[in-house]
Amino acid sequence: xxxxxxxxxxxxxxxxxxxxxxxxxxxxxxxQRETEMSREGxxxxxxxxxxxxxxxxxxxxxxxxxxxxDGKSDTIITRMDGDIVEAIDDTGHAANIWNQVSTTYVIxxxxxxxxxxxxxxxxxxxxxxxxxxxxxxxxxxxxxxxxFANSFGGDAAKIFxxxxxxxxxxxxxxxxxxxxxxxxxxxxxATNLWQPLSECPFSFWDLDNDGRTDVTLRVSxxxxxxxxxxxxxxxxxxxxMWAKEAIPAKKIGALNMRLSFNIDPHPRADPLDQPHSNFxxxxxxxxxxxxxxxxxxxxxxxAPQTTIHIPWSQRWGAAISDPATxxxxxxxxxxTNFRWEGQFWVYEREYLSNTGSPTQRWNMRxxxxxxxxxxxxxxxxxxxxxxxxxxxQEGWMEAGHLVSDDKDLEFRWWSSKGDGYLDTVxxxxxxxxxxxxxxxxxxxxxxxxxxxxxxxxxxxGTILPRAIHDDQSVIGTLQRLVADGxxxxxxxxxxxxxxxxxxxxxxxxxxxxxxxxxxxxxxxxQAKDLYPAAAVDQKRFRDPAPGTKSSGYTLGDTLEFWxxxxxxxxMDAAYAQGQFDVVVKMLSQITIDGKVNSYAR
Length: 601
What we know:
Elements lengths: L1 H21 L7 H5 L16 H5 L6 E4 L9 E6 L2 E7 L13 E6 L8 E6 L9 E8 L2 E10 L28 E9 L4 E4 L1 E8 L9 E9 L14 H4 L10 E10 L17 E10 L6 E3 L8 E3 L8 H4 L5 E7 L31 E6 L8 E4 L4 E4 L4 E7 L6 E8 L9 E6 L7 E4 L5 E3 L3 H27 L6 H12 L3 H28 L27 H22 L3 H8 L14
Antiparallel strand pairs: 1-2, 2-3, 3-4, 4-5, 5-6, 6-7, 7-8, 8-9, 8-10, 10-11, 11-12, 12-13, 13-16, 14-15, 16-17, 17-20, 18-19, 18-24, 20-21, 21-22, 22-23
Helix pairs in contact: 6-8, 6-10, 7-8, 8-9, 9-10
């Protein structure tokens, strides 16, 4: 039944497209006729009556035309940077034709006569500023694909920064923030339809209208069969966008979704041009690209007038309930990655197809689930005062390259029960292959709703202050026993931090380095004891008093040794469980040389 509905929908679109093409030219608006492509998507200026005059233009020269015949200029022809540009006021009555409100720019590079780019600004709501913009890309005069953008309350003309009449790329002034959406569609000349491909869409939601983005969604559209083909990063390969033919819509899937949240305290302090996301889900799956309301028709567009994308108005529900086959969870612990795209997964350790270029390896917490899941959920664990991916079987974080050029620590987390809750941690120094500390703990998980506003209050009002207080308490006690140069650098970085989140992370690493140091101190003290390497003192083996090195160990030596071993085990257990008040009390029983004064469980 679903296939019949899909086929019927495609037939309707094809029929509508055919009707548009079968209309007599006089029935179509003048601005559509001026930029009308052939059925194969070909567009040239060579047949225009004004073309010889345009060819004769010198750099910077221009002339105006009245294409709608109302006696008023509505089009400018000029030569800019060697190119011929036709600027058309689609309303026909703007005081300024070149106003980027309802203007379409047709560009022929080097004045060849073939169209290379077309940029259209559309004022759908008639507010005096563009609500939509589209960038059409041609090759040899044939339409290949287009970027589209919508602004919901802002100015769409500012969304894409342009360089040579095309998207300038990252970090060139594009305003991908606020309440907006961008998406790519591939042109199919066989059907004269747009098809979803690559980043379709990138959606941004600004929940408090401060101009920043609170939630970001990126969807990778690619052929379903590419999951098992030679290019499992299909959605990020521009060769397919430039191809002559398009993949039919029924064979396209939403193969990767990245949903990122900002839960920083409000009002936000990050600069507008350095947007931040705290955490993200990256989901891979094999779902067909079929969503309610995905066909977006606008009569103010050039043909084809119907694009395909997940509607911005549906918010991020599609990603929350996406039937993912695998999920990656990323958290920017040290606040080092400021990108409008959200927090990326990384091409290391666990592979997620169509995820996009890797951006940050260090100080990023990664958690991973290889089990299919119909719902995104997170939980809070008081053991480490962190929010985690519900369903994760493993995770890791490499701490380093923050206060020096070294890798300082690595944390590896596991779900030993396979229940989707992390309950085991291994801590490694530098590039060591053997862990310095292994601990099992009860996560005591509490599921938290994926509500950015509620999460922000919980994270900034409760979790971070409590974690910082605990860190400072433990660090202060540890410093009376040991010193660590790298830990001191992280403490300094914490003092200089401009956010609670970065401060907490730096203190966490300083605490862990000092704690590993104190463990070394205690175990070295144990290694100096007579037991267990020496031979038993046969005359005193039942004596509860410690023996002497000359006569061998006594029962008292074994009691003392095991008491110290039990002390270290219990302190490790309290530390892993986040019971730092217990840890502080236990640390007070350790002498400066690492001996345990007295301990009774």
